[in-house]
Each structure stands twice: as structure tokens, then as C-alpha cells.
Amino acid sequence: LFRFISGDNVNPSTKKLPQGIEEGARAAVKNTLLAIDYNQQRKTEKAVSIGGGLHHAMSDYGEGFCVYNDVVIAAKYAIEKYNLKRVLILDTDAHAGNGTCKAFYSDPKVLFVDTHQEGIYPGTGSLDEIGEGKGKGFTVNLPLEAGTGDKAYELIFDEIIFPLAREYKPQMIIRYGGSDPYFDDELTSLGLTLDGFEMIGKKVRELSRELCENRSVDLLCSGYNLKVLPKIWLTLVAAISGVKIDFKESALDIRDRKITETKNLIEKVKGKLAPYWRSII
């Protein structure tokens, strides 16, 4: 499992990772695997791994702040240990999950759906990346324009994610991504408000209750505006858990940005996926 290891963080003089990096990465993987076990063994209805969702690491090297790809490890672990045939991975991080995408690109046991900002690191996740071989149609990339807001994200859930998930009938859902799609993130330029993150959490909760008996695991890692990160993470966890919290913010006028552009994107995605899914019309 630990072949999903980093190479880009190695100190060139010592040929070693900085002290604590590798140990911390292993701890993140362990937390995510524990979350899988607790959820699959019904020890808890919802399971969250703080620090999980390291989606850029590849099978033989790491990149993008990611040493081990705990998402890939966890999905493979769940498939092998619990004999799962269908796992939905939902990546709502602002960056495309290139490591996760590559790992399951030809594997129909995983439906990988990725919303991310177009044109930023790692430069992958185009509309044309829909899988290959037996996995063709099981990779779904939704590259969003900068500024894409809450209502546009909700359209994506209603028009793409829900129909696909209902047809696929996952036995488990793994969602990951932290606060970097926030409109005031310091590294990215998407447009979610706190209400948008709450909506995402509620949608995931609804899907897991309807389709897989609440077998869902949430991984939280990203975000580059430390002032708002705790509120966003808490908002996501609360919404997924069915707990109501009420954080106020004044950015209400940006929630309907990029709706027309997102509708156009949705139609293009439907065109790519229609040959593989009856629900995409």
C-alpha cells in the first residue's frame, strides 16, 4: 500500500524527506484507513479523516504537498477487504486529483467525479479525460471557470453527480476536499461561500443515505485561507452529519456567478458521458 510515496519533497543534499514529513503522511493514511474500517464495520454512521485527501501523489512519487495518496490506498483497501464492487469517489478540491484519477482510470470499480478550477495546477482534468478500457466513462472531470459559485455547484450535483450516482449505485462514497474552492482562498479562484460548502455536505449526506446505507467517509485537507478554514471544515462535517450550524458572512451577492458557463459545461459533459450512462440525457 505504501508504494504511493513521494519523491518531490526529498532534500537534494541528504536524499531524505524533511524530518516528520513521511511519518505525518503515514499517520494521515492510517487515519483514513481507520475511517474506512469504522464506517464499514458500522462502528459509526459517518467517519471523517482530518488531514486526508492527498490526491496528487502517484504510485511511485509524490507531488503537490502530497506524499502518500491516502484516497487511492483507502479505496483499494475498501474494495479488497470488504469486497466492494462499486465505490464513488467525489473530489471537490479546487485542484484536479491527478493521482487518484490515474490510479482508477481503467477501473470500473471506482466512479471518480472531480470538480476543480480549470487552468491551475496540476493542469489535468480536462473534459476529454473520461477513462480508458473497462473504465471508460467512469472518470468524470468538471473543469470550472474561476469564480464559479454556489448555485453553479448545485447545478452540477443535480444534473451530473446525482443521476450518475443513482445509476451506479455505489456501495460506499469517499468525498474529499477542504476549503480551497472558497471565494477568498489565497491560492485558488473559485467562488464558493459557506452556504456552498454546506450544500455540498448536505448533498453527500443525501446520496449516502439514499444509495449506500450511510456508508460514506469524508477526508479534509486543503485550504489556504487560514482565517476561514476552520469554519469551512466544520461546515462540511456538520452538514454531512446532519448538524445545523449558522455561520454568517456578507458575500451573498456572488452565489449565482458563472451559472451560464456552468450550464454549458454540463451539456458538454453530458455529451461525453451519454454513450456510457442511461441517466445522462
UniProtKB/TrEMBL annotation:
CDD domains registered for this protein in UniProt: HDAC_classII
PANTHER family reported in the protein's UniProt record: HISTONE DEACETYLASE HDAC1-RELATED
Residue ranges of domain Histone deacetylase in the record: 17-239
Matches recorded under InterPro entries: HDACs (IPR000286), His_deacetylse_dom (IPR023801), His_deacetylse_dom_sf (IPR037138), Ureohydrolase_dom_sf (IPR023696)
The protein, known as: Histone deacetylase domain-containing protein
Organism lineage string: unclassified sequences, metagenomes, ecological metagenomes
Organism (species): marine sediment metagenome
GO terms for biological process, alphabetical: epigenetic regulation of gene expression
GO molecular function: histone deacetylase activity
